[in-house]
Each structure stands twice: as structure tokens, then as C-alpha cells.
Amino acid sequence: MHFHLPRVKSFTDIIEQVRDAIRHKHEKESEAHQASSVAESIFRQAAGHQPKGVNPEMVNPDEETVPGIEHPGSTGVIYCSDRAMANGFSYANSHEWANLGQGAPEVGPIPDAPARPNSIPIPVDSLEYAPTTGVKELREAVANLYNDTYRKEKTSKYTYENVCIVPGGRAGLTRVAAVIGDVYTSYQIPDYTAYDQVLSVFKRLVPVPTALDVKSKYKLDIEQTKRDIRNQGLAVILASNPRNPTGQVIKGHDLKELVALGREGTTVILDEFYSWYIYPDHDSGFGKSISSAKYIEDVNEDSVVIIDGLTKNAAGRDSSPGSCQSCSRKGAIQLGGHSGFAYAYDLNYQLALQRHFKAKRDHVLHRLRDLGLEVDLAPTSTFYIWLNLEKLPEPLNNGLVFFEELLKFKTIVIPGIFFDINPAHRRNLFNSPCHHFVRISFGPPIEDLDRGLDAIAMVLKQAKKVGPQNMGRGYVASESRDLDRSLTLILLDIRKASMA
User: For the Aminotransferase class I/classII large domain, which residue ranges apply (predicted)?
Assistant: First the structure.
């Protein structure tokens, strides 16, 4: 392929001509598509977000920070925080913003809940390095917690040897991924953004996607999964349950059937970080949680790995705020280790937590409905709303554009594209099933939620006032990028192509 550029006097002239081309070449395209292209261009320019495996010679020099080191790309929260900072956000002025992108629950007082501790005594000997699998007493406490909550009637019980303590969810996922062999790994779309990095970094995991659909309530088809295991040789199934970002949960018979796969030669890895954020239809359902631990027959034979944490399910009642626990067969925990606490959930606290978050969910759904934004499927768990923008006029129906427009009103959401687990970044953004979505968190306090919902109302009002075709302008570049530099990279790529 050859590109013919007109004669120019200098490289600066080329820059100007490309600017002019960008300004005029879309005459056949809609203004809405141009706005979408700008938002997506910003996304693609972020380190680690370029398509991979397309042309090894087209390397972005901004990503070559250290020879031999490849940028893994950023998760949704990290990218969106970076874009918010480019628009004036800082942790010093965060109270002026509505962060509906945060993946964390509010940490203030919960109505009708017991008071949270505000200090924890720490003995000197606890400052010593801990074992790689965690302090034995804490592992025993977690094992007892699972036995008491989910396995009272079971003969097979967890012990400390089934538990590994790590400093956070990503660390837990990393420990597990590091010991998985060269196998086909099943995952679903949409799902938790960090899985994208896990499936990209650990090359031995061969990712096999399954797209979930709102028509089936984002339900994982267990019978189809069984067929895929037989026909495709799936060795590992990775999923969040309850599911981030859709807010749906596998429970009852379906969860029992999914766990049973762990007795048939397939390892099931379930991320249960939102196991207590369950919103029942009736009062009798409050105070209960969901976990696959209930359906495991033998804790040392069933190939099921549970990843859970104290940072969400016991936020504020937690003597170890940054910890994540993993429960599995003894052998898996010992492998994870190579790469004193009495603990119990305060049921009164968990009950108040569920009631409070359900009330916040209903409040956000009501306000969105008043704005004409109907949610396809109300969340029954987690603290996220998976909002479909498809009915909005272009370009606001693009999750990236909607996100960028909200930044102008000091509000953060997460574009749905980040929940399209697309390890190689090969798929065109417009082809993504998550392209028209954003994730809205109702984890923050109610005042922050209202501030963010007011901002959504202002964006919709602005679209009516100026016309949606006039939106998608005035986006602030991130500090690490500027237009001239980006255009220079485009021209370098054109030169390489013309010499091919």
C-alpha cells in the first residue's frame, strides 16, 4: 500500500495539512461519528490500549519506558481517574466531584448499623514479615467464618490450610493466575475489568470468551458451558459472582450446577467480592449472602477457588482493611504460597448494609427513570447499574462520549468498553457489545449520587439545547499526550506504510 503526500516545505507544514485533513475528511461522516472518534482516539492513545498483534513494527515509543517491558493497559477506574485529573480532578478537591465510577462502598456511618471501629491496636510483633499465605490465626478465622456461614451441615470443613490471605483482589487473582498451566480459560463478557489484564499478562492462559446477553438476563448458560468443556477442552472457568458490572447473580440450582463442574475435571474460579451486596424482593431475604462454598461437597477434592475480601463485604467492620482471602483445595493454597484473629460477620451490620444499599439502588433507578434512562435489568446484587445508552441520540449513545461529557460537569462514570474483556485489544470498539453502556456505582454516599445524577441531567439538557451533533467537542488531552505528538506518531506510521 502506498500513501502519496503533497509536496510541503517542512514537517510543520505536514502537521498542518494533517490537521486540515482531520478537520475536513469526515464530510461524508456524521458529526456524531466524529465526536465518537475523538473520544475513542483518546482511549486508544492511552498506554497499553493500542491494538496488538497488528503490525509489530508500529510501536508507540511512549510505551517503551523500559526495554522489554510492555504496558499492560489500565483498568477502567485507573483510566477514568487519569482522564478526570486532566479535567481538574484531584484528591484535594474530590469533594467537589461526583465519583460514580468508584468500585468501593461508602465508608461513613450506615443508618441503623453498629458503630464502626476508629482505631485498632497493633502489637509490635505483628509488624514482622508475614508468611506468604498469611498469618495462621487469620487463616483459621476465615476458615471458621466460611464453615459457620455456609457449611454448618457439611462434614467436610475448611481449615487454615484451605485459606490464603493476600493484600487485595488483584493480588489474589495474580496468585491464582500464576499457577495455572497452559490451558483454555473461559470468561464472560461483560465482567470485571481486571480480568482483561490477568488474561493479557499471563500468556499461558488461553482466553475463550462467552458473550452474555440482556435477553437472558446476563445468565451463564450452564448446559452450554458443559458442552463447551467437552467440545473446546475448557480447563478453567473464571467469573465474578455476583457479577460486576451487571449486578446479576448466579444462585440456587444454577450455582450448585456450576460448582459441580469442579468435580468433573474443570477448575472453577469464582470472584465473590460482592457476596453480601444482595437485594432481596422481600424482607425475609435480608441478612443472607451468596457463596459457592455452600455447594462444595469436599473442600479438598472439589476444584473450586473462591476469591473474596473484607474490603467490601465487611467494610468498616474489618480488622484487616486491605485483605483478600482465597479458599480452595489444600494443594492450590500451597502453590499460591510459593508464588489470630477471631472473625465473624456482624449480622446487624450486614443487615443494615443491605437495606441501605438497596435504598440507594432504588433512589438511583428512580432518578434515572425520571430522566428517561430506563435500565434494561435492575441489579439484584453488587452496587453497580449497567446503563444502556443505546436509545440516546448520537454521539451520547457512545459510552466513551457520555463519560467525557460528564467530566465537564465534574462527574465520573466508567465507560462500558472496559468491561469488554478483550485481552489483545483487537476488536474494533464499535463492534463491542459494551460500546453503548456505562457503569454507574451507587457505592458513594447519597449526596454524591445526587450530585452525579444532576450532572447527567445537565448533559441531557445540554444535548437538547445545542443539539447532540454539537457535542463531543472541547475534550482536554491527558497530560501525557498532546495533539502535535499524536499527529507526529500518525505521520510516522504513514511513512512506514508508504515504504512497505
Answer: 97-313
